[in-house]
């Protein structure tokens, strides 16, 4: 067989189709927190359509549902758990100004 003809043969690897993340019976609604929480990152951001493997229509409905849940305070806008921990650390490690360790590096005037 010619090497030019071999190029057009498809591989014999089996194609495994992924299941859609949203089943046909699932309602995309702001009250369905178990469904909505799957499409939000740990920081509270809405995940992209590529990551979610959703259709365009499903992604739009998920986005609207997440925004409605945020407005109604059933979902936080941000997940600030890490930020609170960092703020506590920075407050406890405050710098003190020691003798002779000022910001000026020039000579003193007499």
UniProtKB/TrEMBL annotation:
It comes from Rhododendron delavayi (Rhododendron). The gene is rps18. The keyword Oxidoreductase does not apply. Residues 88-110 are annotated as: Disordered. Part of the 30S ribosomal subunit. Keywords: Chloroplast, Plastid, Ribonucleoprotein, Ribosomal protein, RNA-binding, rRNA-binding. One of its GO terms (biological process) is translation. GO terms for cellular component: chloroplast; mitochondrial small ribosomal subunit. It comes from the Eukaryota. InterPro entries: Ribosomal_bS18, Ribosomal_bS18_sf. Pfam families: Ribosomal_S18. GO terms for molecular function: small ribosomal subunit rRNA binding; structural constituent of ribosome. PANTHER family: 30S RIBOSOMAL PROTEIN S18 (PTHR13479), SMALL RIBOSOMAL SUBUNIT PROTEIN BS18M (PTHR13479:SF40). Belongs to the bacterial ribosomal protein bS18 family. This is Small ribosomal subunit protein bS18c. It is found in: Plastid, Chloroplast.
């Amino acid at each position: 067989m010619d090497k030019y003809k071999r190029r057009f043969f498809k591989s014999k690897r089996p194609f495994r189709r992924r299941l859609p993340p949203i089943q046909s019976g699932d309602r995309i609604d702001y009250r369905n927190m178990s469904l909505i929480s799957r499409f939000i990152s740990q920081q509270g951001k809405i995940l992209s359509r590529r990551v979610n493997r959703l259709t365009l229509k499903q992604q739009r409905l998920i986005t609207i549902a997440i925004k409605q849940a945020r407005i109604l305070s059933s979902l936080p806008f941000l997940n600030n758990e890490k930020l609170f921990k960092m703020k506590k650390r920075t407050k406890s490690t405050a710098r003190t100004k020691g003798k002779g360790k000022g910001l000026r590096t020039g000579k003193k005037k007499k």
